[in-house]
Structure formats: structure tokens, C-alpha cells
Write a structure and sequence with these properties.
- There is one protein chain.
- By secondary structure, this protein is an alpha/beta fold.
- The chain is 34% helix and 23% strand.
- Helix 3 links the parallel strand 4 and strand 5.
- The longest helix has 20 residues.
- The structure holds guanosine-5'-triphosphate.
- The site of guanosine-5'-triphosphate has 21 residues, from helix 1.
- One of its GO terms (molecular function) is G protein activity.
- This is small monomeric GTPase.
- Its EC number is 3.6.5.2.
- Belongs to the small GTPase superfamily. Ras family.
Length: 197
């Protein structure tokens, strides 16, 4: 069975927990209280392959024994870096995180022959009337840093499906099979409209 470790990173309140909970429960839960960092585990079968997914949701609040961002980045095989399209500062944080991931995973102890998979996610697309980050900016960052890019909404009623952007260069590159599964897995997670309740 393939083990896949995914860290969901980003500023406080961008919707990391909402996205994870939606994936795990297929529901949007508006006020999901998390006061400590968590690892969620899930077994999945994709195209007949069994995957053991570990999803890491850091707590944005300082708490005892909290791991550092560097430790979180070293732990993970892949990343979902989330910002809120209605909050520019969260985009700047996402940018810094993506830069750091690329830096640490190139020069770090993990020997890698290819890039780690990073999904850059502009969440809260339902708040586009309050948009502070253009879709093009997200797309540009994604293409500069070799990420897959999505704008989406963890909130329930938003109807437009996410559009993968800037993925052409990525499609040409080869990834190790675990990362490939993860990409597929996360596509499965974030790439489909989910029914709300
Ligand atoms: N409108 C809208 N609100 C959202 C969306 N996703 C999350 N929220 C709301 O944003 C707030 C923060 O969501 P969380 O999932 O707790 O965000 P987080 O990034 O996990 O926050 P921390 O755990 O504090 O880092 C909550 O009130 C959610 O209901 C979305 O797609 N659209």
C-alpha cells in the first residue's frame, strides 16, 4: 500500500479545516473548531490501488508542542497550500510557503529526483465580489513555482467546478508513482463538486 503524506498549509482562517472536513465527510461544516494540530488518516482505493493518506492540518494558533513550518514541510510528500481570494495577506503567506517548500525540498535532507507536488488553492471563490487576489496572480505564482492551481470554494452552494490551470508544464514532467497517486488523489479530493447538506 502506498503511504501519502499531505500537509495542508496556509494562513489562519483561509479554510484549511473546512477543505479537509469536506473531503473527509463530504460536507461543508461552517464552524469547524480546531485548537490543536491534527493528522487525519484515510484509506482510499483509486484505480484499484490502495492508498493510505495522512492529511496534516496544522493549528494556526500557538499551542504546546506545535511543530514548526520547516518540520511540517520536511514531514510531507505533498502539499496543499491554501489562501483566501478575498484576503491578499493570505496570498502573500501562501507565496512565502510555496517558496520555502521549494527551497527546503531542493536543499533538504530528503533526496528527491523530482519536485514535490504542490497544489496552490485559492479558496472562498464564493466571495469573488470581495476578491483581493486576481485569478491570474494565483495562476502566475503556480506556473513560476511549478504548482497545480485551483480556485474553489469549500462552502456548500458554490456551483462552478474548479479549473486546473497552469498544469501544462507539469503534465510533461515525470513524477514518482507515489506523487502521481497523490496528484490524482488530491484531484479526486478537490477536483469534484461535492454535495452539501
Ligand atoms: N465563504 C466561505 N467561507 C469559508 C469557506 N471555507 C471556509 N470558510 C469559513 O472560513 C472560516 C475559517 O475556516 P477554517 O476551515 O477554520 O480555516 P482554517 O484555515 O482551518 O483556520 P485555522 O485552523 O484557524 O488556521 C470559517 O468560518 C469557515 O466557515 C469558503 O469556501 N467560503
Amino acid at each position: 500500500m502506498n503511504d501519502i503524506k499531505v500537509a495542508v498549509l496556509g494562513s489562519e482562517g483561509v479554510g484549511k479545516s473546512a477543505l479537509i472536513v469536506r473531503f473527509l465527510t463530504r460536507r461543508f461544516i461552517g464552524e469547524y473548531a480546531s485548537s490543536s494540530e491534527c493528522i487525519y488518516r484515510k484509506h482510499m482505493s483509486i484505480d484499484g490501488r490502495q492508498l493510505h493518506l495522512e492529511l496534516y492540518d496544522p493549528c494556526s494558533q500557538p499551542c504546546e508542542g506545535k511543530s514548526t513550518l520547516n518540520e511540517q514541510i520536511h514531514w510531507a510528500d505533498g502539499f496543499v497550500v491554501v489562501y483566501d481570494i478575498s484576503d491578499r495577506s493570505s496570498f502573500l503567506t501562501a507565496k512565502a510557503i510555496v517558496h520555502l517548500i521549494r527551497e527546503l525540498h531542493l536543499g533538504g535532507s530528503k533526496s528527491r529526483d523530482t519536485d514535490s507536488v504542490i497544489f496552490l488553492v485559492g479558496n472562498k471563490q464564493d466571495l469573488c465580489h470581495m476578491r483581493e487576489v486576481d485569478r491570474e496572480e494565483g495562476q502566475k505564482l503556480a506556473s513560476e513555482r511549478r504548482c497545480q492551481f485551483y480556485e474553489l470554494s469549500a462552502a456548500e452552494h458554490y456551483q462552478e467546478g474548479p479549473k486546473p490551470l497552469g498544469g501544462k508544464a507539469k503534465e510533461r514532467r515525470r513524477r514518482p508513482s507515489g506523487s502521481k497517486s497523490m496528484a490524482k488523489l488530491i484531484n479526486n479530493v478537490f477536483g469534484k463538486r461535492r454535495k452539501s447538506v
